[in-house]
Amino acid sequence: MNRRHFLQASLVGAAALLPFSGFSLTQQKEFKMGLQLYTVRDDMASDPIATLKAVKAMGYEDFEVYGFNEEKGTFYGYKPSEFKAILDDLGLTVSSGHYGFAPYLDKPVDELKRFVDKCIAGAQAINSAYITWPVIAPEQRTLDNLKRMTGLLNAIGEQVNAAGLGFAYHNQSFAFEKYNGKSGYDIIINETDPELVKLQMDMYWVMRAAEKTPKQLVDEQPGRYVMWHLKDMDKISQDYTEMGNGSIDYADILPSPVKSGLEYYYLEQGGNFAQSPLQSVATSAEYFKRHLQKYL
């Protein structure tokens, strides 16, 4: 066991002895308030710089990108070096990205490897720590494809880790559907190497579709949930909504960040905006800072 893993294991063990309400993450690490930029995707498409300035003013400092253009090798229309310069000028960072792996589930492995190389080059250029697999298409959600995906996740994780980056899998609701009595998520977790494939927990989908709570998931895979997605659930429709307007009591359901292995978290809202995406992320930021940031 190397020194980094020894320290992580020690922190996880210590955290297990403490109730969540008994400590603050600031005792372990100061986290930047993060935002998944998919939330403001239309604004980023029309004016990335103005959008980044606007969300910075709300208190967001760190981001997860979405929409890497593999053909052009660009983020939001900018070459990675140009996008990094914009981030640097604004004092902002990108710690992870959701990349379009789903089409490569049905393509030759060599094509996938070339795509991963492009993702690695882009992530390195913007100084991003993680590359994340976010979703597969509805028509791909079969037991055979889930089993094939676990092999690909391991292979991608090995390729990404060899480049000095981390690789993670992000859960959606379909992962908790049962296949021959076993959830797809259990298949993914149990058949991937925890050293190569970390986990990004989307707590909205866990609360909406899983049989286990976020705390139970962390208890089963301590140290592996290196990233969280935080978004609220409409009390009636169960659609997305602004933080504080929905039914998820995050003060109650948040796992121990230390036991989780948390490195980054991102607020997100995929749609169902009360007014506009920018107004929604502002509302979520204000609620989060008042009620939840003390835990992070």
What does this structure look like?
The two termini are 28 Å apart. Helix 3 packs parallel to helix 12. The N terminus is likely disordered. The protein has 296 residues and is an alpha/beta fold. The protein has one domain: Alpha-Beta Barrel (TIM Barrel). 42% of the residues lie in helices and 16% in strands.
Tell me briefly what this model is.
Pfam families: AP_endonuc_2. By secondary structure, the chain is α/β, with parallel strands linked by helices. The chain is 42% helix and 16% strand.
Per CATH, what is the topology? TIM Barrel
The level-1 CATH class? Alpha Beta
Quote the average pLDDT: 92
Question: What is the oligomer described by this structure?
Answer: single chain
Number of strands: 12
Tell me about the largest β-sheet. Answer: 8 strands, parallel
Percentage of helical residues?
Answer: 40-55%
Q: What is the number of independent domains?
A: 1
Low-confidence stretches: 1-12, 14-26
Spatial order of the strands in the main sheet? 1-2-3-4-5-8-9-12
| Anisotropy-based shape | globular
Descriptive keywords:
TIM Barrel; about 300 residues; globular; eight-stranded parallel sheet; about 40% helix; alpha/beta; single chain; two-stranded antiparallel sheet
Question: What's the layout of helices and strands?
Answer:
Blueprint: H1 3-16, E1 34-36, H2 41-46, H3 48-58, E2 62-66, H4 80-90, E3 93-98, H5 109-125, E4 130-133, H6 143-162, E5 166-170, E6 178-179, E7 182-183, H7 184-190, E8 198-202, H8 203-209, H9 214-220, E9 225-230, E10 232-233, E11 240-241, H10 250-253, H11 257-260, E12 264-267, H12 277-291
Parallel strand pairs: 1-2, 2-3, 3-4, 4-5, 5-8, 8-9, 9-12
Antiparallel strand pairs: 6-7, 10-11
Protein name: Sugar phosphate isomerase/epimerase
Keywords: Isomerase
GO molecular function: isomerase activity
